[in-house]
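URGENT: need a sanity check before tomorrow's submission.

F., can you look over the Cobalamin adenosyltransferase-like domain-containing protein record below? I want to be sure the sequence and structure line up before it goes out.
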Amino acid sequence: MKVITEEKLREELGRDSPAYYCIPEGTLLTPAAREYLQQKSIRIIQKERQKQERDLKKTKVKPEEMTSLKDDILVNKAHPIIRFRGRLDSLQALIVLYQAVLQEEGENEKLLEDLEEILCILRLMMRCEVLGEVFRYESILGLTSRQLREQSHDPLKNYGIAPMQLPSWKFGKGYAMLNHLRTAVRETETAAAEAFCINDTCIRKDILEGLNRLSSAFHIMMCRYQAGMYPDKN
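Structure tokens as predicted:
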């Protein structure tokens, strides 16, 4: 599958500003390229659909093994992007489940609030992926992208927690849940790489970077939990 990046688009169009840009069949437009066309008020249209999709339009019947990728584009449910969306959906569901359990266990409200913040960020990521928008965030847990990396890489300096510790049940149920969520983010990131990295070109670097930072965020929450920054209500 071919990919049209913003750089390729700029080279192709030069100083021209056509009324519309036609995407060839079997080609993907990166979010940055799509945003560039939108900024120049160039309408984006698809050149043609596969014969199977044209037949589906005529019959108006969607086979059970297919689902909507976007607009009227149908793909097999095993499509890499559909698998990624499934992982992202499962991750959100796991956070909601653990929020409910932690609330019943009497865990600290700040822990629940931090999980809610991450849940909202994941929902934004889902929306941006489906609509082809660029995924952006200002901070996670009050930390910028750079701060997330720095604090995650040096837990001793920032939280007094020894680095490279193996997770243990001795650290508590909340800690174990946060560790599970961290691994779930990693699995979602792997699914994203399979979906969006094509021929050594990543068409959704924004999503891959976002998931990487969310993994750091969960590691930081684990450190905060160990450091007693999420004391329970009891």
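My own read: The chain is about 55% helix and 10% strand. The beta strands are 2-4, 20-23, 27-29, 43-46, 66-70, 73-76, 197-198, 201-202. If you see anything odd, call me.
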